[in-house]
Design goal:
It contains two helices and four strands. The protein is 18% helix and 17% strand. It has a domain at 60-105. The relative contact order is 0.13. Strands 1-2 form a two-stranded antiparallel ribbon. The chain has a two-stranded antiparallel ribbon with strand order 3-4. It has helices spanning 69-79, 90-97; strands at 43-49, 52-58, 100-101, 104-105. The protein is of the alpha+beta class and 107 residues long.
Amino acid sequence: MPYVQKNHPFPVTSCGRRRSFTTTGSPIKMYNNSPMLKTAPGKKFSVESEGRTISYGEKGYKIAKCGTPRAHAYCARSSGIKPCDNPPCPNDLSRKKWKCQGKRSVC
């Protein structure tokens, strides 16, 4: 007897596979009525923006409290990254989480 997984968010198709989309192409709504976001491997956060999913943040890397030397170091490093053409970009989102203003982390 095959294993049957219960409470899976994706329905089984006629061939027996689970797909993350429906026949209409709209994303499947999950637990709290938010669209399911696919996070890239190795990334911690993801955001849906203008029909695209933006993944950012290193997995296992904790965001330090603002105003600490570690936070200042991250803000100084990331301030040198060239701005993207189609915002928001992962660097902008990460700097927002770290509360960066210029090369400093400000509370």
